[in-house]
Amino acid sequence: MRPAWHEVFLEMAEVFAKRSTCIKHKVGALIVSKDNKILSAGYNGAPKNAIHCDEALKQIINNGTINSNNIITIFLPESVEHIAIEIPKTRLLKHMDAYTERCRELINEYIYDEIIKKNYIKNWHSIWSERHELHAEVNSILNLSKSIDDNSTMYVTLSPCINCAKMIVASGIKNVIYKGADRSHMEDDGHQFLFDHSVHVTRMIDIKTHGD
User: Fold this and answer.
1) How far apart are CA 50 and CA 128, in angstroms?
2) Cβ neighbours for 63, distance < 8 A, ≥ 6 positions apart
């Protein structure tokens, strides 16, 4: 079956999301004119030439200290937290007596994966992201090479937060179609702000999927 335009554009937004280096959410956004011409695209992440959150976390892990009990302690500066993780007695510790740079690299890789898997950095990343990252919606607006028309649509892989909602309203975008979980109950969600400023918001699950 021929896909509808909104399906095509949301899939394209998902492809752009893969460019993101964010360790928490990879988000993509696409701005399309009323006659289905792509005007701009963007994904979330740090500004050009700035450090990304995955690189920041790796630096933090590398600064961690390992004690005699094979426990690494890591300090997360933004959230002022200490994390202590035991390094398993596997081949990673095989050469700990003759400490090498490669041994530390293997330990860091294990700790990085463990931190992501168990979401130890939830508080840290929320603060770090707020200070350093731009959301996909903002980047897509900044990447516009020309002014938008009177009925443009933003396609995004996550519902906009309140700050992105402000940017959407200020840019003149009149429609937002998003995919993913309903975040309207969350404190930072931008649904109500968009509604109050006459921006039509639709979740993918609420619209038909027939081609036109």
Assistant:
1) 13
2) 74, 75
Could you please report the per-residue DSSP string of 77-102?
A: TTTTEEEEEEPPSSGGGTTSTT--HH
CB atoms within 10 A of CB 124: 22
| pTM, 2 dp | 0.85
State the Cα–Cα distance between residues 192 and 151, nearest whole angstrom. Answer: 19
Alpha carbons 124 and 194: distance in angstroms, whole number: 28
Surface-to-core class of residue 32, CB atoms within 10 Å of its CB (0-12 exposed, 13-18 middle, 19+ buried): buried
Task: Report the distance separating Cα 82 and Cα 4, nearest Å.
Answer: 49
CB atoms within 10 A of CB 191: 22
Model pLDDT, residue 11: 96
Position 49, amino acid:
N
Which residues fall within 8 angstroms of residue 189, CB to CB, at 6 or more apart?
Answer: 159, 160, 161, 162, 183
Write down the H helix ranges in the chain: 5-17, 53-62, 101-117, 122-132, 136-142, 162-171, 191-196
- Two structure tokens written together for 144: 């516009």
Model pLDDT for residues 158-182, shown as the tens digit of each residue: 999 999 999 999 999 999 999 987 7
**Token pair recorded at residue 208:** 């038909």
Look up residue 34 and give its two tokens: 């009323």
| pLDDT(212) > 90 | no
Instruction: Match 């309903």 to its residue by tokens.
Output: 182
